[in-house]
Amino acid sequence: MRFGLDEDQAAIFEMAAGFAAEHIAPHALEWDEQKTFPVATLRAAAALGMAGISVREDVGGSGLSRVDAALIFEALSQGCPTVAAFLSIHNLSSWIIDTFADEAQRTRFLPALTRMDRIASYCLTEAGSGSDAAAMRTRAVRDGDHYIIDGEKQFISGAGASDLYLCFARTGGDGAKGVSAIVVEKDTPGLSFGANERKMGWNAQPTRAVRFDGVRVPVDNRIGAEGDGFRFAMAGLDGGRLNIAACALGGAQSALDRTIAYMGDRRAFGRRLSDLQALQFRVADMATDLEVARAFLRHAAAALDAKAPEATKLCAMAKRHVTDAAFRVANDALQLHGGYGYLAEYGIEKIVRDLRVHQILEGTNEIMRVIIARALLGGR
Ligand SMILES: Cc1cc2nc3c(=O)[nH]c(=O)nc-3n(C[C@H](O)[C@H](O)[C@H](O)COP(=O)(O)OP(=O)(O)OC[C@H]3O[C@@H](n4cnc5c(N)ncnc54)[C@H](O)[C@@H]3O)c2cc1C
């Protein structure tokens, strides 16, 4: 896990792993069962610089690289992938504001976001447009120095609890070029939320629809120029996908570590499970798959840091490969626990439930293949 890291990177990993072990892991099962969104814990993570990881330091960010971010999310997820993944979504919104907003907007929004005094949600998906996000129908119509927003976003992580909604809405014609990015603040009249969705996993963070009913927002809340919003949304997802993959990796590593410990204790046919070669081989494959995933994830993160031309393709490959491998490993870990893996108290079934959605959101793994194939084949 630590091979290839320099001293600073190893310290970053240790810091996040220590935080996860002390402040997240002991509560993860209870938060899942009670559907608790642990805001105080998220703020404690923010105090250590984990709410504005790749945000510049003048507004309270940590100014760290994408490789550093991947290390942080892998380490945090060993405590709970759901809590870490929410932090990754908050970081995604903050990064977009830091990268594309003007100076006045950066100083207005980011200090509170990096402290996590205010929490941000990323609002792209709609009921009729998920993978085909550019088909969105939420509209922002200009009215003097305001926009009036009408529409509805679906599946928004943190909705209802968040203070800022980075909303992608149509200000122009059809397609990606008609979309703008607009920050909507929580108490704006006309903004409302659906019920917390009942989900397979990710129970320690709320998921709700966000409704805009004549929501009046100053034009000053638009990030960048009209029509640039979709580009910002996609740029943010390169890093977001690495982080979602890192969260899956950390969750799977935790499932594997628990499995190895369990196999040393559990006996069948007069032997420990860890003495059975068929199971030894299975664990060997699981560990190998995670090491390959880890190496490739860090490679893709380095490509994004280097602004390599193929970075988007590599981020999509990493998201697809790592989240598939991590889910497989978590599911195998459950199998190796036998019936106990199916019981909530062992914590393995929660990891399986949590990791399943990493194959779906921030672009499904089919859409990752679309991106990869487009990069390889282009218009051919
Ligand atoms: C728990 C949770 C949290 C989420 N959080 C957020 C959030 O915070 N913000 C946000 O904006 N969104 C969020 N999402 C939404 C998520 O990003 C979408 O669900 C996802 O992008 C897929 O969209 P969809 O559900 O509409 O599926 P669809 O787009 O309807 O896809 C259905 C199936 O068809 C496949 N498919 C579609 N098009 C193609 C194609 N061209 N080629 C091959 N296969 C294709 C898909 O891969 C999928 O298997 C969240 C979702 C969940 C479940």
From TrEMBL:
Pfam family membership, one: Acyl-CoA_dh_M
UniProt-listed PROSITE patterns: ACYL_COA_DH_1 (PS00072), ACYL_COA_DH_2 (PS00073)
Q: Does the keyword Flavoprotein apply?
A: yes
Keywords, A to Z?
A: FAD, Flavoprotein, Oxidoreductase
Note whether rRNA-binding occurs among the keywords. no
Superkingdom of origin organism? Bacteria
Query: Could you tell me which residue ranges the Acyl-CoA dehydrogenase/oxidase N-terminal domain spans?
Result: 7-116
User: What InterPro entries does the database record attribute to this sequence?
Assistant: Acyl-CoA_DH_CS (IPR006089), Acyl-CoA_Oxase/DH_mid-dom (IPR006091), Acyl-CoA_Oxase/DH_mid-dom_sf (IPR046373), AcylCo_DH-like_C (IPR036250), AcylCo_DH/oxidase_C (IPR009075), AcylCoA_DH/ox_N (IPR013786), AcylCoA_DH/ox_N_sf (IPR037069), AcylCoA_DH/oxidase_NM_dom_sf (IPR009100)
Give all residue intervals belonging to the Acyl-CoA oxidase/dehydrogenase middle domain.
Answer: 122-215
Task: Name the cofactor(s).
Answer: FAD
Family of the protein in this entry: Belongs to the acyl-CoA dehydrogenase family.
Q: What is this protein called?
A: Acyl-CoA dehydrogenase
